[in-house]
Specification:
single chain, about 290 residues, mainly alpha
Length: about 290
């Protein structure tokens, strides 16, 4: 799906389902995160230059949070910190969650530069606590939801979305030197990262497929763990979250449809998928953990 803010996304950002009262804040948070992502990932800058720029970006965030009513001049990113200051002043956004997002981008830069391979799913989930879970918690804050059960279910949905994005983007990430396939999953099949290529022998590709299949199953289970949150949130916000959940599950369906060979082909969701996602959002037909994917 494409959104009003100019980047391809699997899931709706500030869609028409988002309550109008919080839509400017949602867009402000999105622009904040997307700009940081671009600093970390786009253009020819070196790792050191990217980290320096993110450090300046973090300093601008700290100034914005310290004085949202009178935000300091952020000449380099006025389109980010002007709206974010207004959102912070109106909604008292938790600054630690915004700082966590920047920590995730810094980690990506360092790990890409060093060729780091994540040891296991636990290390990936620790990354998700910085890269994905803050987004869900920020949205719950805007909705006025703060109970522990909702926060944990939100974390499950957001971590699942992050993992699904990893298994969708294997080919893209490997080309950029980013490696999220965990070492223990590779070792369990006697594989190395370089085995995930079109030229690998069929027997090796089958073992690669088994790795991706298992990782997708784990992501689906995590999504189903958090999915009940969408039915407890009232009104348009709950429907928004139902579609987000269905977007993630639809990507998993599409990875399964290509026999879990997503290192060869990147599946995406589009307008043609929307009717099925809407029906499933209404019926909840694919939210039974005992029900096979498809």
């Amino acid at each position: 799906m494409t959104t009003e803010v100019g980047h391809y996304e699997n899931f709706p950002v500030a869609s028409w389902l988002c309550p109008a009262a919080i839509r400017p804040a949602v867009v402000a948070i999105y622009h904040f995160a997307r700009t940081a992502d671009d600093i970390a990932d786009e253009g020819p800058a070196t790792a050191s230059e990217r980290l320096d720029q993110l450090s300046a970006y973090r300093a601008a965030l700290a100034r914005c949070l310290a004085s949202p009513a009178q935000p300091p001049d952020a000449a380099q990113w006025p389109q980010v910190f002007g709206p974010l200051a207004r959102a912070t002043e109106r909604h008292r956004l938790p600054g630690d969650l915004l700082h966590d997002l920047l920590s995730a981008f810094e980690q990506d830069i360092r790990h890409t530069d060093s060729g780091h391979v994540y040891a296991d799913t636990a290390e990936l989930l620790a990354y998700c606590r910085l890269s994905a879970n803050p987004v869900g918690r920020l949205l719950l804050h805007l909705y006025g939801i703060h109970d522990d059960e909702s926060l944990l279910q939100s974390d499950a949905v957001c971590s699942a979305l992050q993992l699904i994005n990893f298994w969708q983007d294997i080919s893209v990430d490997h080309a950029r030197g980013r490696h999220y396939l965990p070492a223990d999953a590779l070792q369990g099949q006697g594989l190395r990262l370089e085995n995930f290529s079109a030229g690998a022998p069929p027997e090796v590709q089958e073992r690669c497929r088994q790795v991706v299949r298992r990782l997708c199953e784990e992501a689906r289970a995590l999504m189903l763990e958090g999915a009940p949150l969408a039915r407890r949130i009232p009104g348009r916000a709950g429907w928004e979250l139902r579609l987000v959940v269905q977007g993630g599950l639809r990507i998993l369906d599409k990875i399964a449809a290509i026999d879990h060979r997503s290192w060869l082909q990147r599946p995406t969701v589009g307008k043609a998928d929307l009717p099925l996602m809407l029906w499933r959002a209404v019926s909840g037909a694919n939210l039974n953990p005992r029900q096979p994917a498809g």
